[in-house]
Every structure is written in C-alpha cells, then in structure tokens.
Write a structure and sequence with these properties.
single chain, mainly alpha, 8 helices, 73% helix, globular
C-alpha cells in the first residue's frame, strides 16, 4: 500500500508507512527530516554551552536553521550505520538506506518542538541561551509555560521512539523486542566510545 501523505500516516501506521517509503523512495524528504532533528538538537546544544553570551538571539536561530540540515543528516547517517551494523548481529535484513529512512521518519513528531523553541524565546528572550542563572526566579506564568512545554516535548519524544522502534522492526524484519535490542546494542557502543574518549582525555591531564 502506498501513502500519499506519509507525514500523516507515520503517526498511526509506522510499519506500513515505512514499508511503502523504502519501496518507493527511501530518501524521500530526507533533508526535511534531517532539518527537523538538527534544528532542535542544535538549539539544545547551544543552550547547554550558553552561546547566548556571545551570539544575539536572532543570530542563534539563524545559525541553527542554516546548520540544521547538515547536522541532522550527519547525525541520522552515523547513528543509522551503527544500528545497521549492530543489527547484523541479530540477523537484521535492513540495508543502510532503509535503516536510515526508519530513523529519519521517526523524527516527524519532533516537528512540534520547533514552535516550542520560539515560544521559549518569546518568553525568556536572550536569557534562554545564557542568562538563566541559579539566582533567576521563575514567576508562576513562566513555571506553567515550562511545564506545558516539557509535557509537549516529552510526548513528542516518546511518540518518536514508538515510531522508530516499529519502523526499525519493519525494515530489519524484526520483532519489536529485537528492534529494541538492536537500539540498545548501538547505544551501548556509543556509550563505550564516549566513556573511552573521556577516560583518555582525563588521563592526559
């Protein structure tokens, strides 16, 4: 079955939708999906490093928008390659472009996070990326807003994961449990790599 609007059907029929996509064109909308992931990911990173002390608020959003497609594409590709390799250990049948499509299309629910960033920017201004210190006291309106946005982001993340597990299971010809195992294996490799790099860095100090 082919879906004329996979952006809609992926929410409720991830397995059938991704099966249609990888059969028709596994690269469909890849750059748009990469942009969705990349934009929110970059803004979160910018917030962590408090880039607001050095770059104007408007500049931060422009910078994220420009880099987002490339950052998202690289992130999706590297992670998908690792998932594919680890999936081979579990007898996975998915090819790279199929596994990548499964991850890319699982990012569709994350699109709701984009307007949330603009709402936060409207509420907190330049403080969002560098000025929210421990001494900053949130008023009731800001607390309610942050709680509401947290719920929205949590919901979109959970739904994205549900779509991803089902889509990965479809392209790998896995059960849901084996698809989860595939992701855990890949995640363990990333954890070990990061731990090793951190340990080497600390021993060099």
């Amino acid at each position: 079955m082919q879906y004329s609007n996979p952006w809609k059907s992926i929410w409720t029929e991830p397995r059938a939708t991704i099966a249609s996509i990888v059969t028709e064109n596994p690269n469909r909308s890849l750059w748009w999906l990469a942009s969705i992931l990349g934009f929110s990911s970059l803004l979160s990173s910018f917030q962590s490093i408090m880039i607001g002390y050095h770059v104007h608020l408007i500049g931060i959003f422009i910078l994220a928008a420009v880099i987002a497609p490339f950052w998202g594409y690289i992130s999706i590709s590297i992670w998908s390659y690792l998932v594919m390799v680890m999936g081979k250990l579990l007898k996975g049948e998915g090819k790279f472009h199929q596994v990548r499509a499964a991850y890319a299309w699982s990012c569709v629910p994350l699109i709701v996070n984009i307007p949330m960033w603009f709402v936060l920017a409207w509420a907190f201004g330049s403080q969002l990326f560098g000025g929210l210190t421990e001494e900053y006291m949130l008023n009731n309106r800001e607390l309610v807003l942050l709680f509401a946005i947290l719920l929205v982001r949590l919901g979109s993340t959970v739904w994205s994961l549900v779509i991803y597990i089902n889509a990965l299971a479809e392209v790998q010809r896995f059960s849901v449990l084996r698809a989860i195992g595939n992701l855990l294996l890949a995640g363990s490799v990333i954890f070990l790599l990061l731990y090793s790099v951190s340990y080497l860095f600390m021993t060099m100090q």
